[in-house]
Design goal:
By secondary structure, the chain is an alpha+beta fold. It contains three helices and five strands; from the N terminus they run ααββαβββ. The chain has a five-stranded mixed beta sheet with strand order 1-2-3-4-5. A hairpin with a 3-residue loop joins strand 1 and strand 2 (about 85-90). The longest helix has 24 residues, at about 5-25.
C-alpha cells in the first residue's frame, strides 16, 4: 500500500471521528425516546419484518445515522435497548484507528442517549468482536476491553 493511500485512510478516519463527534453534538434530529415493546419478528421465509438497526425507533434512527455518516468506514450498526451500540468496521479501518473510532462513537452515543451507562461493541469485518468500550455515567470514564 502506498504512502498516499495510507495517509488518505488515516485522514478519512480522523474526518469520520470529527464528523461523528460534532454532528452528534449538534444534531437534534435523533433524540432518545421511551423504548418500544415491538421487537422484530421473523416471517416464514426468514426475512425480518422490521429493520434491525435498533429495537427502538430512536435506536434505529441512530444506527442508520452512524452507517450513513461513516463514509464507508462502518459497514453495519445496531442499537439495543438505547444503551448498547454494535458496529462492524470496514476492512480499510486499521487496528490503530479502532480505539479512537470507538471513543468517538461513545461520545456521539452519549449525546443522543444521555444519563446512562453505555456500551459500544466494535466488530471486525468478519463479525468477530475486537473491542468493547464501556462508558460509566457516574465516573464519566470510558473503559476499553
Amino acid at each position: 500500500m502506498s504512502l498516499l493511500q495510507s495517509l488518505f485512510r488515516t485522514v478519512m478516519a480522523l474526518v469520520l471521528i470529527l464528523v461523528l463527534t460534532t454532528t452528534a453534538a449538534c444534531s437534534s434530529a435523533v433524540q432518545a425516546r421511551q423504548p418500544t415493546t415491538n421487537l422484530p419478528t421473523i416471517s416464514r421465509n426468514g426475512d425480518y419484518t422490521q429493520l434491525e438497526r435498533g429495537n427502538t425507533s430512536a435506536g434505529q434512527d441512530f444506527g442508520g445515522w452512524v452507517v450513513k455518516t461513516a463514509h464507508g468506514l462502518i459497514q453495519d450498526a445496531y442499537v439495543r435497548d438505547n444503551n448498547k451500540l454494535g458496529v462492524v468496521i470496514a476492512p480499510q479501518v486499521r487496528p490503530t484507528e479502532v480505539k479512537p473510532l470507538a471513543k468517538s462513537l461513545v461520545q456521539g452515543f452519549h449525546k443522543n442517549f444521555p444519563n446512562q451507562d453505555l456500551k459500544v461493541l466494535m466488530y471486525a469485518p468478519d463479525k468477530k468482536l475486537i473491542l468493547t468500550a464501556q462508558y460509566d455515567e457516574q465516573s464519566k470514564q470510558i473503559e476499553y476491553k
